[in-house]
Amino acid sequence: MDVTGHIASSAATPAAIPQRLVVDLSVSEGPVLLGANGALYGIGDDGVPSDAALAPLKITSITQKPEGGAQHPNGDALSVSRAFFRNGGGEINVMMQDVYSAWPYENLGIDDYLPKVDAIVKEVTADPHGDRFVHIPFNEPDWIWYDLGVGDQERYETNRDRFFADWKTVYRRIRALAPGARIAGPNETGYHSRLMNDFLAFAQRENVLPQVVTWHELSPDSLRDFQAHHDDYRRIERRLGIAPLRISIDEYANRRDLSVPGQLVQWVAMFERNKVYANQAYWDAAGNLDGNVVRTNIPNGGWWFFRWYAGLTGDTVEVTPPQPHTVDTLQGLASLDTARRQAQVLLGGSDGDVDVVVRGVPRAVFGRTVTATVAEAAWSGYEGPHAAPPVLARSSFEVADDGSVTVPLRGGRRMSAYRVVLTPGGAGAPSAVSVPWSASYEAQDAVITGGEVNTLGTVVDANGYAASGTQDVGPLDTASSRVDFTVTVPADGTYDLAILYGNGSGAPATQKLLVDGADPVTVTYPSTQNWAHRAKKDLTVGLPAGTHVLTLAKGDAEVTLDRIDLTARTGAPTASYEATLADIGGGPSYDYSSSAGVGTGALVLREGDRAVFDVHAPLDGYYTVVPRSSAAVRLALHGERVTAAPDEPLRLYLVAGNNRVAVTAGTAAVRSLDVSGAGSTAGVLSHDAASAVLTGGAKLVGSAHAPGGSCIAGLGNSPDSRAEFTVHAPDSGRYVLVVHYAHDDRRDNGHAYNTDIMSRTADLTVGSGAPTRVAFKNTWSPHDYWTLGVPVDLREGANSVTFRNATGWAPHIARIELGRVLLRP
Questions:
Q1: Are 470 and 415 in contact (CB under 8 A)?
Q2: What is the pTM of this model?
Q3: Which residue from 70, 310, 381, 617 has the fewest beta carbons nearer than 10 Å?
């Protein structure tokens, strides 16, 4: 099998010997922990991000501020706990000093802090899930309040003793109020052996040991040094006779790492190998799982990597990379589940060719042949949508006499992560994979007029934003600014053009796209958080075979450019989601007697079993969904349930981003769920803002970027304010209500590295039903309109759909659409 990655635009380089990533299935590291999937301020509000974005990741811990804390405008631990726990979340760390507003925290003394500690502990303890919270009483004490990193030993000891006295006071205060409370610390900015030795000895002597030991890993050097930090800490424990405590790295990674699958795999591999918990750092905005969720519900490449990570089951096994503990190199992690008869390998972090050598393949589990399925999660930017990771190859291999299988990966990309799945080989052969031609072209390598090349996201600029090739082009802010890309395509046809860009202008911005100097086409770019917070714009171009110049020239505002990708369009977008890799409930069995279709066998469902598929949709609309099964199955989506015969196509409404489709059956072997289409809106009910009846200060205003040209503004902040639409449903049943909205609420807390965006809410009432509170994430500008889907029930005929907010402002609403979840012929 030759797994070919995307073709770079640069000239071919001499062939190099492939790197070898060696996986030994015979050496267990213990049960999969999934500890490294956490996030600091990853949830902004209940519903931001969506349940469908949270649930698949099986997040073990998050870190948030105390309820009502002044450090940030949202992300309160108790407020977000409902969303976290209902989506299978593990525990919530409460960063107690985030009760303060200043950064670094204002130091008003321990006597000012203790009443705040009392209030936090009492509130958490009163919560029904109080036992699932961990108190972190001090944050970065080596820098804030105590200066424990000082070099002078005498000053260090003075500062240390003051910190230890305050630690003991606060620890005992917490335990007096909540005897069973779990407490974490010391929570330094990095690992310091000097303090850790002193802290553990003191805490042991005074009986104030934390239940969770925390520190941060916030440097590229952590990719080299964490193992030594971890091992040193465990040596201190052993020397003092302390039973091993849970380790939580409650902040990790740099801006350049977040959202980048090939970077994230390096961090996650070392944390999972050592069975520690870890939360990604909060460098930008709350509510996007630290850069892995686009808008509210849309996966990017980083999300898909964490989805793969959440899919590891059984035990992790030994992985030997070519350069262990080396920054920005090929790394990986792997698992073996003997009950499911699956092995999975996640790898990434390096350009070029790789041989994934899997040793110790047990014949008692896999037999004499295996099917290898290889997929890629690419970097799509912090705010760039990523479809379901494409399968690059499905092939059968014989297990060698020495128990090994070698899976070749060719043309790997440093910013991508790859998944290799091994399952027992059955009769027949898996369906051939057709990988469309694709090529990437860096903006810095193009012909640039009126712009500059900027370098960012390197090891020396680790908190710079990630960029493809570590460079982008901007500003492109003069009348003559343009970037000319020379591209060569192999055949006449339609090509998908993906543009990685940044738009910090505060409104949608445009450029002019010219093909070989022909008449320009306007390309509109939604706003991004700033010029370097990369997003992705997708469109299509028709090109004859040969070489062409694609020009992106200045339009009505500035846009920075990073890279363009061209991919041959081979038909309507399609994806097959393997049943044996889906989330499961109950006790289904795995049948690998046939390697037909997706090649990974079939999941056998009986009453009480279920499989949950994470299905991506590029747009809100209708898609064709086909269950590949041996007997009838039941599908559940958005609260709708429908029975489908084997291979029966269903017309289902999917929201933009991730959709969780649950499949159950009496008895059926399910091979895959196949999804195709681009989001048809035929049959969707649509009502622009102008059709609503407005009261209490709500008004219709013109909005150039709103669908329909106007929006409802001034809605809310009064019990009398409302917007009421009347919709006529052709039949009774379950619908998805899609709201087109915009707003740019913020509160500047004076933190240079955080964008303190806020959500707006609205109470949605359908007919005479009870109101539902809906959170609408900030759209980066008041002129950018996003969509949010909410399942609702309509009765045949006229229905009122009402928005209000008696205590705050609702978002600007431009349009509502309603699609029946199941559209029958």
A1: no
A2: 0.97
A3: 70
Closest CA to 741 of 48, 224, 103, 159: 48
CA–CA dist 584, 581 (Å, integer)? 9
- Other CB atoms within a 10 A radius of the CB of residue 168 amount to 15
Structure tokens at 601: 């066998």
How many Å separate Cα 414 from the centre of its chain? 18
Q: How far apart are CA 259 and CA 300, in angstroms?
A: 7
Residue 504 has a CB neighbour count (10 Å cut-off) of 19
What's at 694, amino acid-wise? L
The single-letter code of the amino acid at 720 is D
* Residue 448, strand partner residues: 483
Residues contacting 455, CB < 8 A, separation 6+? 461, 470, 471
Residue range 378-418, pLDDT digits in tens = 999 999 999 999 999 999 999 999 999 999 999 999 999 99
d(Cα 439, Cα 416) in Å, to the nearest integer?
A: 15
Report the alpha-carbon distance of residue 515 to residue 520 in Å, rounded: 8
Distance from C-alpha of 330 to C-alpha of 349, rounded to nearest angstrom: 5
Looking at residue 396, its amino acid is S
pLDDT digits (tens, 9 = 90+) for 19-75: 999 999 999 999 999 999 999 999 999 999 999 999 999 999 999 999 999 999 999
Q: In what order do the strands lie in the sheet with 722-729?
A: 693-695, 722-729, 797-804, 760-766, 772-776
Q: What tens digit of pLDDT does each residue of 258-299 get?
A: 999 999 999 999 999 999 999 999 999 999 999 999 999 999
Question: Contact, 712 vs 700, CB < 8 A?
Answer: yes
In 3D, which of 107, 96, 86 has the Cα closest to residue 63? 96
Supply 43's token pair.
């949830």
Contact 195, 160 (CB under 8 A): yes
